[in-house]
Recover the amino acids of this structure.
């Protein structure tokens, strides 16, 4: 940014505004598909740990732990394959 022609007062205000602005959040990675989550919960139902289930479906261990924790240990989605118009 060229600031040679901008008065010092304006530059000081820009710095102050930037200091008060919260950092921009990264949107992160897109959520894995429902099919992946469904497979994760099927594996949990067989009795394996969330870490093992996460690795088997191809997501990281923290993601599997977060799914398990946020759902309270119960699958938030139906484990049956979608049929009809929901296919």
């Amino acid at each position: 940014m060229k600031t040679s022609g901008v008065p010092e007062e304006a530059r000081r205000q820009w710095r102050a505004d930037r200091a008060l602005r919260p950092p921009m959040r990264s949107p992160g990675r897109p959520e894995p598909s429902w099919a992946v989550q469904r497979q994760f919960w099927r594996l949990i139902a067989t009795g394996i740990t969330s870490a093992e289930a996460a690795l088997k479906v191809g997501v990281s261990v923290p993601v599997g732990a977060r799914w398990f924790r946020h759902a309270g240990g119960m699958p938030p989605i139906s484990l049956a394959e979608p049929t009809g118009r929901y296919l």
